[in-house]
């Protein structure tokens, strides 16, 4: 028996192949299959390729017995979106047996070996999930048009807003203006308008990638960047503190997602805003591992 765990987030799709003893045999990464951001056929192609590539390395039997567990961003309470995801998975995974979860749910299961705790995912978007006595509660994860405060997209959009206010004179100008002009390869501030229209308007991933600018060496002590990160940290901590209020005892938190690569400038204020009953710890295992744990637990 083999298992394939899949983490389908907003930035990438990660596939891991496990044997019956939960040893990870291979992990591959493909582009995002997020159904709100790629066409249906594209999502099916990505998922099918990941499965085919992993099954191809199993050469000890002609037709290996494989079960698939996948966590997908957007799989939740929206019935229309759930149906769309289920239709895609049916076409991508047939004839294998499979189970679908939310991406935050599998991250939580992997982080705490399917035990109680809180997971905070901060990447392109942001969402928190708490597990208590096998019951799940979410906070955040409303998408970039409604919420996702503190996420990479949110920071990227804040950078653009602050840039425009500095150019207008509504805010004190800092090094951010020159750094952004250089990073986007535009010559004048007002070229940003056409740049956004042509490159960013329908691409949430590219907007989120602007958050990497906060780590630019010339912006190390930039007041505007520090304030953006402070606001992001508070927004993310608010999500965790809301979930932490569900517990009568201390609870562990695992932080997952590319946004935490920003490091100290984000993590330090985040920790300051956390309630005292919440302890941040490292994830024990990957979300893909967590997906398979949930699959086994559901049997």
From TrEMBL:
SUPFAM superfamilies: Actin-like ATPase domain. It comes from the Bacteria. Pfam families: BcrAD_BadFG. This is Uncharacterized protein. It comes from Dolosigranulum pigrum.
